[in-house]
Structure formats: structure tokens, C-alpha cells
Amino acid sequence: MKHTLSILLQNEVGALVRVAGLFSARGHNIDSLHVAATRDPAVSRLTLTVHGDAARLTQILNQTRKLVDVLQVEHRSESPESHAA
């Protein structure tokens, strides 16, 4: 199943690399990635999509929340019905 994660992280040098490195080190492939500034210049929003089952998603969420630069993680699951026309 495809999952969309929205991550608020400190806008510091190396923050994105640490998040991407966590995924890479654990064998998770990032399908898409978008980073944008928020109204607060000290915070960025990272939106990414990944594929995986519930156990894999739980592992990703728990490990991402442990990163020092990460302030908040939200999960938005995409159901197959949402793409039907």
C-alpha cells in the first residue's frame, strides 16, 4: 500500500540527509519527495511517499520520530479508491 508522510523538521543543514539516510539504511525506498519552507523560517515540511505493509509503516514512523531534527510526523494513507475515476 502507498503511504504519504508529512514531516516537520528543523530547517538546518543536513536534516534532509539524516531523514533520507534513515530510510536508505533500513532498505526503504522513497517513491517521491518534496521539501518546502513553512511560515516559520526555522521549520521545513518534508512530504514523501513510500510503499509498505502495516508493520513496515510502523517501523518507519517510530524511527523517523526518533530523529533529533524531526518535530512532527503525520501519516496519510492513500486508498486505491481515491484514485478511481
Automatic annotation (TrEMBL):
In this chain the ACT domain maps to 4-78
Q: What does this protein do?
A: Catalyzes the conversion of 2 pyruvate molecules into acetolactate in the first common step of the biosynthetic pathway of the branched-amino acids such as leucine, isoleucine, and valine.
Fetch the InterPro entries from UniProt: Acetalactate_synth_ssu (IPR004789), ACT-like_dom_sf (IPR045865), ACT_dom (IPR002912), AHAS_ACT (IPR039557), AHAS_small-like_ACT (IPR054480)
Primary enzyme class: transferase
Q: What is this protein called?
A: Acetolactate synthase small subunit
Similarity comment: Belongs to the acetolactate synthase small subunit family.
The protein's assembly and partners:
Dimer of large and small chains.
One GO cellular component assignment for this chain's record is: cytosol
One GO MF term attached to the UniProt entry: acetolactate synthase regulator activity
GO BP terms, alphabetized:
isoleucine biosynthetic process; L-valine biosynthetic process
Q: Does the keyword Amino-acid biosynthesis apply?
A: yes
* Keyword entries, A-Z: Amino-acid biosynthesis, Branched-chain amino acid biosynthesis, Transferase
Q: Which Pfam families match?
A: ACT_AHAS_ss
Catalysed reaction(s)? Answer: 2 pyruvate + H(+) = (2S)-2-acetolactate + CO2
Q: What is its EC number?
A: 2.2.1.6
- What Gene3D superfamilies does this protein map onto? 3.30.70.260
Q: Which PANTHER family match?
A: ACETOLACTATE SYNTHASE SMALL SUBUNIT (PTHR30239), ACETOLACTATE SYNTHASE SMALL SUBUNIT 1, CHLOROPLASTIC (PTHR30239:SF0)
